Amino acid sequence: MALLLEDVGFILLSRGMKEASSPGDSRSPGRVKRVLKNPSVLMGVFLQAIYYVLLLSLIQKAPVSLVVPMTGFGYVLTAFLARIFLGEPVSLGRWAGIFLITVGVVLISQAGG
């Protein structure tokens, strides 16, 4: 659940940042206002905040050396969500990297304490 909140938050932040900017205005003061008023950015920040509260709760109860690597599963979800909702291309090389991270997470979760 926490990873889903984090990844949806990332997707919303990306969408909102793209909506709030236009070519050539990266330094304009109006851009900051647009970003801070953008509903996607605000919801993305909110979901990220909930994620971090849940993460704090998890690392209070379980070893951080287990909890933090488990967040690596989020890379798979992020790639799928970015492809579906943002239309981002995900190359074969990127999928291979995500696969290797996932294998590492599985190995870490299988290794005893």
Short description:
By secondary structure, the protein is mainly alpha-helical.
What can you see in these coordinates?
The protein has one domain. Helix content is 79%, strand content 0%. The chain is built from six helices and no strands. It is flat and about 50 Å long. It starts with a helix and ends with a helix. The relative contact order is 0.15. The model has no long low-confidence stretch (mean pLDDT 89).
Would you spell out the secondary-structure blueprint of this structure?
Blueprint (H helix, E strand, L loop, with lengths): L1 H19 L8 H9 L1 H23 L2 H7 L3 H12 L6 H19 L3
Number of helices: 6
Largest sheet: none
SSE series: HHHHHH
Distance between the termini: 24 Å
Fraction in beta strands: under 5%
- Radius of gyration over alpha carbons? 17 Å
Q: What sort of overall outline do the alpha carbons produce when their principal axes are compared?
A: flat
Instruction: Report low-confidence residues grouped into runs of 5 or more.
Output: none
The tally of beta strands, per DSSP, is 0
What structural class is derived from the secondary structure elements? mainly alpha
In total, how many domains does the architecture comprise? 1
Mean pLDDT: 89
Helix content: over 70%
